[in-house]
Amino acid sequence: MAEPSTASRPAAAAAAARAGATAVAHPNIALIKYWGKSDERLFLPRTDSLSMTLDVFPTTTRVTVDAGAAQDTVVFDGRLAGGERLRRITAFLDLVRRQAGRAERAVVVTRNAGPTGAGLASSASGFAALALAAAGAYGLAPDARALSRLARRGSGSASRSVFGGFALWHAGADADSFAEPVPVAGSLEPALVVAVVDAGPKALSSREAMRRTVATSPLYEPWARSSGQDLVEIRAALGRGDLAAAGEIAERNALGMHATMLAARPAVRYFRPASLTVLDRVAALRQGGVGAWATMDAGPNVKVLCHRADSAVVAAALREAAPGAAVHVAGPGPGARLLDGAGR
Ligand code: PMV
């Protein structure tokens, strides 16, 4: 028998065929880094990681189920996406469709408020927003853990952007590899000052860079071991509101991660001259009595952890040190959430 036309379908089925959901999520910056996978397909990390979700650079994503479409359509920052970007989002939607027992294609419209692919965690906010919007559009209602697990399958760090404030992603096996909120002392009042020294897309993806590091760097295993100890120590520091201890641990963890990359064969190097200028300035701030500690991800940009009360002084120092850089002050931001029909 022929399929009934959309017009003759019951109203509820037709509405479901056009169902959509919009979600917003913020990037997170790891203080204890995720670097290296134990399972590439399942996005399982080799180590636990811990991050702060920011209150800047959100991603807003709308997913609309389109029963009549032969393939998914992705509009990314106002442009029709193709190539690797479309392939990655389609593969993620396939996962959501399998979980929902559905087959219809979707239209995804997504917009990043910050730069994309520049080591500013756009993939974390991006896949957290996509996971929540796609789950909503396909009629899934995951709890926070299930959502974190789902977001992880798009980009590992996205598992942490499901939550606001500080989050810990347990390496785990598939079912227990999710993030959860980490309580911190109310007196902590942290800020992250982000120095964007280069907003362009990175030359080597974090996926490829971590693969090469794990496979070839003699420094990888020692870093992974010490990262476990860093995590224990930073949790204690955050819990007692000791920003200086947390900052020192975060900085050594990040520089250690970059050391593993520099020792990879061939080397992976995200540092630029301007990154080093900013790192020097952070050290000088500390010598001058201002608590400031740097962290860097898979890109040349530098994020500086400090007390909220010092953030204006730190931002001014970074602007002076790197005049070409755009400097943003971020505080702890909210977890991923669905917007209502009016976009609120
Ligand atoms: O999840 P990905 O592929 O964006 O990798 C993130 C890797 C780092 O940003 C360098 C570290 C981290 O934990 O976010």
Describe this structure in words.
With 344 residues, the chain is an alpha+beta fold. The protein folds into two domains: 17-183, Ribosomal Protein S5, domain 2 (2-Layer Sandwich); 190-330, Alpha-Beta Plaits. The protein contains ten helices and 16 strands. Strands 8-7-9-6-1-16 form a six-stranded mixed beta sheet. A four-stranded antiparallel beta sheet has the order 2-5-10-11. It starts with 10 loop residues before the first helix and ends in a 5-residue tail after the last strand. Residues 30, 33-35, 49, 123, 155-157, 206-207, 297-298 line the site of (3R)-3-hydroxy-3-methyl-5-(phosphonooxy)pentanoic acid.
Care to give the gist of this entry?
The chain is of the alpha+beta class. Helix content is 38%, strand content 22%. The relative contact order is 0.17.
Pick out its properties.
344 residues, alpha+beta, Ribosomal Protein S5, domain 2, Alpha-Beta Plaits, six-stranded mixed β-sheet, four-stranded antiparallel β-sheet, 10 helices, disordered N terminus, binds (3R)-3-hydroxy-3-methyl-5-(phosphonooxy)pentanoic acid
